[in-house]
Amino acid sequence: MKREADPQAMTTLWTATTVLIGLRHPREQVQSIIEGVRDMILSKLLGIRGIEESWVYQDIFAEGEATGRAEGWAEGRAEIKAEGAVEQSRNALLRLGRKKLGEPDERVLSLLAALGDLDRLNLLLDALLEAARWDDLLPLLRG
Questions:
Q1: Among residues 5, 60, 67, 127, which is most buried (max CB within 10 A)?
Q2: CA–CA separation, 90 vs 99, rounded Å?
Q3: Which of 72-76, 114-118, 125-129 has the lowest average pLDDT?
Q4: Class of residue 142 by CB neighbours under 10 A (exposed 0-12, middle 13-18, buried 19+)
Q5: Is the pTM of this model over 0.90?
Q6: Whole-angstrom Cα distance, residue 87 to residue 93?
């Protein structure tokens, strides 16, 4: 009978545990808990106390940390880029819509401000060509 999870499942469980703990506790407390558990696991698995003092361990840890940071930066840049595209599409829709349909009322502005889906914004831009008034776009704005 196998009692331990495979490495992929362990990673998933560890990540989920960390995220869930982070929902209830401040960052510093979670980091302290995670470090304590990591130290316990390392000393139990390897039977080596004070392994974190080794330059080899520190280099491996630093490399993993750098990789994680780089991946985080890449994800953050992609998210910012997507947000920028949404904002540009929203602004284009408002600019072109004002030229063709006049000033939108508050309900249209509110629905448009809440819309963060780039595909729907692009559909709205296409539908703007056929629209005679802002109300014609409401079904697409509401989703």
A1: 127
A2: 14
A3: 72-76
A4: exposed
A5: no
A6: 10
